[in-house]
């Protein structure tokens, strides 16, 4: 993943600490464990969740394309067995089988099951892999599927709809709700006091906040006597991982200055943790990302209730249709672009 810089230089998508605190150092590889020093004592930390892999493709059972509604699952063997799915076949294919067992399973073997039967194909779990032409076969070796022509439906005339008034979009709240465990969040606007201590003042000891920086992380941790770490500021436009020890609600205070100029964020090729910047509570994905249309191929949100990633793709396929205030997102860019929501 990569961090984000605001275009134009008027605001930064994150503010680095000028120097590391003398009593606090950290090293943390992406999606893995690391250590930091607090008061001379080494403390072990576990980084945010590893990005999932996704699979899709044709399914053939003993040489015949699978019927609809056959269940497809995947298993990853590690310290404990992990199962992804099930998803159902449709028109001989399966799709959006999201495998997300966590960093402990990187490099482990992925096996697939079709209707409970072991498929011939296996793979190796790699973080963030997208394999939409990963065909599965049961009972025979891999083969080239025969496409069945789609029958042409006879159009049925429909009555002319009566136009409905356009509803007024709901304005965004200043509250951000956290659940116990991992949460991927953002703030929707510049803040009156962007310091970590002010933004997360209501959160208890042992809470941790992470911001991506290169191949590692900036981190803040709530200690008995306040916050410590290399992450000191919370800004709009960036996604932050929060590891909450209990459910909580934080309330942001927008800046009291003049209304900010429309924001823009420079996005490199690869994964970036972005925020949702808007005065509205929600906007359609395609509308929010229209300035980088054709330059991204997938985006994830994190369902804190399920502790699981949920994808969306250009054109609307996926598990959600709108982006919401208070949430952060992992956006995968296939070309450099400037996001101007």
Helix content: under 10%
* Strand content range: 35-45%
Q: Secondary-structure element order, as H and E?
A: EEEEEEEEEEEEEEEHEEEEEEEEHEEEEE
Output the radius of gyration.
23 Å
| Average residue pLDDT | 81
What does this structure look like?
With 341 residues, the chain is mostly beta strands. Helix content is 2%, strand content 41%. It contains two helices and 28 strands. The protein has helices at residues 196-199, 285-288, and strands spanning 5-6, 26-27, 33-38, 41-46, 53-61, 64-65, 71-76, 82-88, 93-99, 109-114, 117-124, 130-131, 136-138, 175-178, 181-185, 208-213, 216-223, 226-229, 240-244, 248-251, 265-267, 270-275, 282-284, 296-303, 308-312, 322-324, 328-333, 337-339. The strands form eight sheets. Strands 5, 6, 9, 12 and 13 form a five-stranded mixed beta sheet that branches. Strand 5 (53-61) and strand 6 (64-65) form a beta hairpin. The longest helix has 4 residues, at 196-199. It is globular. The relative contact order is 0.18.
How do the helices and strands line up, and which of them pair or pack?
Blueprint: E1 5-6, E2 26-27, E3 33-38, E4 41-46, E5 53-61, E6 64-65, E7 71-76, E8 82-88, E9 93-99, E10 109-114, E11 117-124, E12 130-131, E13 136-138, E14 175-178, E15 181-185, H1 196-199, E16 208-213, E17 216-223, E18 226-229, E19 240-244, E20 248-251, E21 265-267, E22 270-275, E23 282-284, H2 285-288, E24 296-303, E25 308-312, E26 322-324, E27 328-333, E28 337-339
Parallel strand pairs: 5-12, 5-13
Antiparallel strand pairs: 1-21, 2-3, 3-4, 5-6, 5-9, 7-8, 7-10, 10-11, 14-20, 15-19, 16-17, 16-19, 17-18, 21-28, 22-27, 23-26, 24-25, 24-27
């Amino acid at each position: 993943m990569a961090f984000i810089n605001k275009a134009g230089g008027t605001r930064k998508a994150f503010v680095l600490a000028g120097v590391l605190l003398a009593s606090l150092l950290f090293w943390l590889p992406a999606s893995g464990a690391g250590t930091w020093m607090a008061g001379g004592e080494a403390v072990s930390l576990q980084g945010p969740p590893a990005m999932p892999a996704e699979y899709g493709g044709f399914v053939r059972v003993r040489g015949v394309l699978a019927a609809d509604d056959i269940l497809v699952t995947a298993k990853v063997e590690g310290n404990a067995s992990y199962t992804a799915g099930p998803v159902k076949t449709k028109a001989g294919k399966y799709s959006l089988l999201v495998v997300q067992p966590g960093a402990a399973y990187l490099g482990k073997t992925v096996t697939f099951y079709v209707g409970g039967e072991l498929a011939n194909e296996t793979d190796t779990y790699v973080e963030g892999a997208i394999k939409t032409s990963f065909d599965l076969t049961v009972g025979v070796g891999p083969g080239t599927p025969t496409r069945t022509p789609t029958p042409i439906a006879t159009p049925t005339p429909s009555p002319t709809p009566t136009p409905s008034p356009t509803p007024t979009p709901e304005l965004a709240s200043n509250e951000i709700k956290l659940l116990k465990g991992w949460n991927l969040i953002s703030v929707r606007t510049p803040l009156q006091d962007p310091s970590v201590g002010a933004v997360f003042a209501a959160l208890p000891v042992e809470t941790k906040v992470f911001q991506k920086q290169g191949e590692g992380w900036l981190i803040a941790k709530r200690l008995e006597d306040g916050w410590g770490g290399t992450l000191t500021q919370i800004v709009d436009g960036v996604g932050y991982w929060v590891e909450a020890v209990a459910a909580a609600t934080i309330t942001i205070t927008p800046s009291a200055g003049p209304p900010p100029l429309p924001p823009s964020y420079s996005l490199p090729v690869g994964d970036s943790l972005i925020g949702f910047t808007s005065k509205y509570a929600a906007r359609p994905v395609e509308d929010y990302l229209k300035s980088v249309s054709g330059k991204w191929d997938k985006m994830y949100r994190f369902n804190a209730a399920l502790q699981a990633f949920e994808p969306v793709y250009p054109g609307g396929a996926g598990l959600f249709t709108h982006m919401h205030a208070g949430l952060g997102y992992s956006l995968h860019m296939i070309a450099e672009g400037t996001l101007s929501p």
